[in-house]
Each structure stands twice: as C-alpha cells, then as structure tokens.
Specification:
Number of helices: 13
Helix content: 55-70%
Radius of gyration: 27 Å
Largest sheet: 5 strands, mixed
Shape: elongated
Low-confidence stretches: 1-11
Mean pLDDT: 88
Strand content: 5-15%
Order of helices and strands: HHHHHHHHHEHHEEHEHE
Distance between the termini: 26 Å
C-alpha cells in the first residue's frame, strides 16, 4: 500500500500534496493571487529599471530586460487563470530563475545587479515549498554564479572590496536561509500531517487523510484516459461480534481485516477506515475490473477466522483533464460506491454490487 508522503522517487516532489493541502482548506485562491501579484511586482521592477541610469545600458541590455519582464509575467499567467499543474509550476520557477539572472547581469551598475540577486531567494522559497531540494539547489547555483560574476565586475570597476563583501553576505544569507528554512518547514508539516492522519487501531488512513491522499493520487495521474476506482466496504454482523465477544475481539477483527485489505489491494491503492466497521479504497488504473477486485476482497475477509463478512460496493469512472473536475469526481464515486454497498447489504450481505457508470 502506498503510504501518504512515501512517494516513489519520480514523485518525491511536494507539489501534489501541498496542492491538495491548500485545496482542502480553500486557500488555493489566496496563493494564486499572492504568487501572481509578487511575480507581477518583480517583473515591473525589471521594466522600471530600464528608465534608471543604473539599469540596462544599450539596446541589447534593454531588450534583455524587456524580454525577461515579459517572460516572467507570461510564466505567472497560469496562476491567474487556475491552479497550475506541476509542470506549469516548474516552468514558472525555471523561467523566473532565468529572468532574474538575465536582468541582474544586464544592469550597468554591478552593485544594483548584485543586490538584485537577493530576489533569487523568493524563487528558492517557492520551489522549497512546492517542489524538491534539487530545484532549490539548482536555483541557488544560478544565484551563486550570477552573484560571483557581478561581485568580480563590481570590484574591477570600483575597487570596493568591502561593499562587495557586504552585498555578498546579504545575498548569501537570503538565498540559503529562506529556501532551506521553508524546505525544512514543509517537510516537518508533511511528516506531522502523515502521522496525524492514521487510524490508531488499524494504521489505515482516517477519513480526512484518505481524501487528501486520494486527491494526491488523482493529481499524480491527472491524464485523460486513466480510470479512478472506488470501493466501499461495510462489515456484516460486526455489531453482533462486539456484543457477544466484546470490543477486544472486534478490535482484533478490524486489525486482521485491515491487513487483508492491504494485502489484496493494488500497490498504489489508498485505503481508509471511514467509520467503525466501514472502509474505503481508491486506486487509479488498476489492471483488474472493480468487480473482480471487490470479489477478491470479499473472499479474503470471508476466509479470515472472524465471524464477519463484507458487503462491498464499487464505482469507477475515467479521469478528465483538470484537477478540480477530478477532485469532485472522487466525492461522486464515493457516494455511488456507498449506495452500491447498501444495495449489497439489503440483498443479504456478503455480496458485491457495482454502481452503474
């Protein structure tokens, strides 16, 4: 079972879970506005420097600043329109890094350019929060190269080693302290969320953690043609077990059943305990039909040495382009699978029912 936060290497990027975290709290709109506004301000500062005597000198340098400002603005447009994909976010960060470097190196006053390298810290903080340490290091490496070039040019033109050293100290402090501080905070937040999102008895996701993890799974597979499968499981005769054998026996049964669900679900499946004796599973692009997966789970539970069976409902639908549409789809499929589960229970239990697409 794929644990929330323990992603394969190609998905070690933080963008998916941070996006889900913000979506869950209705804060994506605020972040979109802040990111776009900050980028617009930085792009405008580059454009304003064109008119400054300390800014670009000559048609080539002016053109570089104009293009840099335009590219920075264009890269931020997705944040104005919608919550961007991971790829769009990476394009934004790489473009921003490149445009900051181009603008800083084009200024006629090397001290102004050197101090402009402090803005790399803004992008460093962004990639530290949303992406990986590799992007943080890449952004920092560009900042170091630009700062060293400008520092050498500044000493050669002014001879003021002390001013250069003071400027470098400020730039270095910001470009190291801010990104790596944000990175540490984001990783700590993720660790805390992961540990607090587990059912203490079974180790499965609790209701909130299930939805967050399932949303993250969807965002990692947000491509046309992929299929999202949801399975809802409710145990038959569980109350009778609790009443006759005691809650300790009920707890032991839940632990065994949870292990069976994990053993017979796909490696990428998100498994949650949504209620006392109710479980929910979400997976994308499982090789087997949902009815077959559900029947395998039903048999696994029936074969356990516990006097309970399971009524299971399933629902499945293709994902579409657009994360917001697919996030709503998850909720719809959970409702449909839940209704199918109740149909199985009304038919006598220990059965599987599939919701019509």
């Amino acid at each position: 079972m794929l644990r929330w936060g323990a992603l394969p290497p190609r998905h070690a990027d933080q963008y998916d879970w941070i996006s889900v975290y913000l979506h869950d709290r209705d804060e994506q709109g605020i972040w979109r506005t802040l990111i776009f506004t900050a980028t617009l301000a930085l792009a405008s500062s580059t454009a304003l420097m064109i008119k400054s005597p300390q800014g670009p000198d000559g048609p080539v340098a002016v053109t570089i600043c104009v293009v840099a400002a335009a590219l920075a603005f264009a890269a931020a447009v997705p944040f104005l329109l919608h919550w961007p994909t991971r790829r769009q976010s990476l394009v934004f960060s790489f473009t921003s890094t490149a445009t900051i470097a181009a603008a800083a190196l084009s200024y006629s006053n090397d001290y102004v350019g050197l101090m402009g390298c402090a803005t790399f810290a803004v992008i460093g903080g962004f990639v530290a929060y949303f992406h990986t340490v590799h992007e943080v290091i890449a952004n920092g490496a560009v900042a170091v190269v630009c700062a060293l070039i400008l520092a050498v040019r500044m000493v050669m033109s002014t001879g003021d080693i002390y001013l250069m050293a003071a400027a470098l100290a400020i730039v270095a402090t910001l470009n190291v302290g801010l990104p790596f501080g944000v990175l540490s905070l984001a990783q700590t937040l993720r660790s805390d969320l992961r540990s607090s999102g587990r059912d203490p008895l079974t180790g499965l996701h609790n209701r909130r953690s299930f939805h967050q993890s399932a949303y993250e799974l969807i965002m990692r597979n947000d491509t046309e043609g992929s299929r999202l499968m949801v399975i809802v499981i409710d145990l038959d005769s569980f109350k009778k077990l609790n009443d006759t054998a005691g809650h300790a026996a009920g707890d032991a049964a839940l632990i065994r059943i949870s292990a069976a669900l994990a053993d017979h679900s796909g490696i990428s499946a998100i498994i949650g305990r949504s209620g006392g004796e109710e479980f929910v599973i979400a997976d994308v692009d499982h090789p087997d039909p949902p009815e077959m997966v559900a029947e395998r789970l039903r048999q696994a539970i029936a074969e356990l040495p516990v006097p309970v069976t399971a009524s299971i409902g399933t629902a499945c639908a293709p994902l579409k382009n657009g994360s917001q549409v697919n996030l709503r789809l998850l909720d719809e499929l959970v409702e449909a699978a839940d209704a199918a589960m109740y149909a199985a229970k009304r038919a006598g239990g220990n059965q599987v029912r599939h919701a019509a697409s």
